[in-house]
Known about the structure:
Largest sheet of chain A: 9 strands, mixed
Low-confidence stretches of chain A: none
Strand content of chain B: 35-45%
Distance between the termini of chain A: 10 Å
Structural class of chain B: mainly beta
Shape of chain A: globular
CATH class of the largest domain in chain B: Mainly Beta
Number of domains of chain B: 2
CATH architecture of the largest domain in chain B: Beta Barrel
Strand order of the largest sheet of chain B: 6-5-4-7-8
Helix content of chain A: 25-40%
Distance between the termini of chain B: 39 Å
Radius of gyration of chain A: 19 Å
Oligomer: heterodimer
Number of helices of chain B: 1
Amino acid sequence: MKQVKSAVVGIGEVPSGKFPDRSELEAAMIVCREAIVDAGLSPRDIDVILPVGALANSHWQVDLVFSRLCEELGMLRSVKMNCQVMAGGATSSSVLTVADALIASGQAKRVLVVHSDAVGSLPKQRGIDLFATTGVSEEWEAPYGHNMNAVGALAAARYMHETGTTEEEMAAVCVSLRKWAELNPHAMYRTPLTIEEVLSSKMIATPLRSRHCNMLADGASAFVVAAAEDAASITDSPVYVRGHGSLVTHYTLSQDTDLAKLGFVEAGRQAYAESGLGPKDIQLASIYDAYPVWPLISLDGLDLCRGERAGAFVAAGETDPGGSLPMTTNGGMLSMGHTAVGGGVAVLVESFRQLMGKAGERQVPNLVNAVETASGGTWMDSHVTILSREAA
Amino acid sequence: MTETQRPLPHATAWSAPYWDAARDKRFVIQHCTDCDRPIMYPRRFCPHCLNDTLEFRPSEGRGEIYTMTVQVAGPPSGFGDRLPYVVAVIRLDEGVQLMSNIVGDDRESARIGDRVRVDFETVEDGQTVLPVFRLERG
Lengths: 392, 138
């Protein structure tokens, strides 16, 4: 079991959706201020800022790398390092791991992590074409018409083939996430969704229909990480980083030899061992989605369904509000909106929010331990993080 | 030559023999001459032993569908006029995998586990030939 070194002490977030009048800079400023104020800190208490990658606008991406936020937030000559962490959708878990390690080694005391992007305001075809390059080989896959919806479809087809998961069960993932999004004022889609609506929506790439596919969104979120020993003096609701595990299984999807499992079994084993906790100790599963197959693969790999098949577990309502294992309570990318790298950051921030007891109408009662997952590109890697209200 | 928005492969020094062979309607797989293992996609060094003496060997281009999808809508630029098209991951008999298209009038009837064999498709630019796969029936 690993000694706990860091804790999250503040969070910030803006609604996801299409906000053409809200610049990436403005959204970033709003969420940074909110996270710093939420922690009861001031900007000059931050010594390291880790802005994560942005995809829609290359100038904004460059601004993030070159310390613009330090200047905008009054952190000049107080922040010692502004350094980007970027692993696509896996940036959430990766950046938390980097922050934890910087704090553990004494290189940082207070780390501010921020994401802000506006992929939702891109023209539709540009969004499709942008995501047809993220983890898609230009030489070996793009010439065959590969794209992000095909990624979700190819994995779903193999997973359904191996496990017997049905189309109705696949649709149940979208429906369960929507039930949570109905309770989330920051979510892009909040109207009720039924299995029948998913299964009668337009076919995109078999077996995925339009309601199985995420929608790109503008969004931003931020959080502050502090040393575990300081956390309780900063806030009365610190969230301790208890364990992490991960494994890279491919760059191009075609090179993964086990698409129905990816690396979640190995990553989960590592994270559980580090945290000293197991599947039975977990009361909230914050699972990176983007497409319905990935939560199912993650739930199976993390052994969270009490021996049941994940598809049957979700279809039985176990992951819904009031169910035995609340899942991705912000609605996930399928209902909150896919803000590029921020889709995963939002899932992570939602885990913190729940553990801090700040989730309002969708608060999971008596919550102590949560698991968070992430994956980047075409699900090139499998990340698992265990978070807790308790330091040990 | 007609203009095409469809992305075309840009060969590297070490992958050029693969694309050259495809232009001659031959399918080849890179192998390491040291550890003797097949390599897909072609690499600069052997990913198993980092040896740099690699060679291309002829392959029958037979295998089975590991996974597949019929793209019906929402394609990337350059593929609108090809709908519906089949994107598949093929597991070749040599044990390596690659992405390709399943082509032919019966392509939409393809299923995971079906046996397939390589064929070659000349792209609109007339210069590029892509290895594609057809169902082996009967």
